[in-house]
Amino acid sequence: MAWRRLGRIFCPDKHYDWMYSHAANPCAERQADGGWRAYFSCRDTNNRSSIGYVDFCPKTHQVREIASQPVLSPGPRGTFDDSGVSLGCIVSENTMRYLYYLGWNLGVTVPWRNSIGLAVSRDGGPFVKQSLAPVLDRNPHDPYSLSYPWVRKEGAQWHMWYGSHLNWGNETREMEHVIKYAHSSDGIDWVPTGEVCVPQIATAAYAYSRPCVLFAAGRYRMWFSYRGKAYRIGYAESDDGIHWQRLDEKAGLLPSGTDWDADEVAYAHVFTHEDQYHMLYCGNGYGRTGFGLAVYE
Fold first, then answer.
1. What is the total count of domains within the chain?
2. How far apart are CA 297 and CA 293, in angstroms?
3. 157: helix, coil or strand?
């Protein structure tokens, strides 16, 4: 695969207290007027993350509107997302839209504990949290921490690919974080399987996260991020969505060596616009330099 960069779309620059810096984990959603909206995670002046959006044009890669209020904010003190909310994905089903996200809790013995939450929009209305509690929390298969969910609905079955810690080391770089699989009959009550989806073949990589899964030409296709010295975008394919073949050479996008994505590329969302694959992705610093757009050729 070969991706042609179209340029950076957006990077917060003290726009608001809640959108002070960073634009991570972008996710594109087509709007009723044919335009596109990119939801993303941003940080406030205390480094807590909220979810905002910009409306943009893929042809000109220019921003048309910036959200003035967050789509989703951190929860009340003591809840699973009181330290921040980070975007996973959005699933549309009839008049309902399901926003799956990661909730942050800062820790004492470890830096953080994450769980997966859900907010729902009905009939085009605002996203409202399904509950003060997560929809997928620590469990016998995921005893440490969970991260960025990607969800697909196929018929009556819901599928989720998400990040999960295998352990914590003495330092953050010693942790092992992998991509696992869960399923559901309603998108709310999830059954984790413990299946590790993406083979760990890069010995220098210690964190696999933020999967993006499409189904095309009879196969599941996943773009994901993995981190060694810096983040890279990996790629895998599967016949059943559970057992995956690692094909990183097909990911097709490496750091540019210059400018905002000189050192890192991460957090890909691949979507179709005018019969072509487009990719939103982040550059340096976990979204510190914002996100950009590339087109598959």
1. 1
2. 13
3. strand
Range of the domain at 135: 3-296
- CA nearest 202: which of 222, 221, 226, 180? 226
Q: What is the mean pLDDT of residues 25-39?
A: 94
CA distances from 275 to 247, 278, 296 (A): 23, 9, 10
In the structure, what pLDDT confidence band is assigned to residue 114 with cuts at 50, 70 and 90?
very high
Average pLDDT over the chain, rounded to an integer:
94
Q: What is the distance between the alpha carbons of residues 13 and 105, in angstroms, rounded to a whole number?
A: 25
Length of the chain: 297
Query: Domain containing 199 — which CATH number?
Result: 2.115.10.20
> Do the Cβ atoms of 72 and 57 come closer than 8 Å?
no
Q: Say if CB 272 and CB 278 are below 8 A apart.
A: yes
Answer whether residue 176 shows pLDDT above 80.
Answer: yes
**pLDDT tens-digit series, residues 123-155:** 999 999 999 999 999 999 999 999 999 999 999
Assess whether pLDDT exceeds 80 at residue 81: yes
Name 63's bridge partners. 56
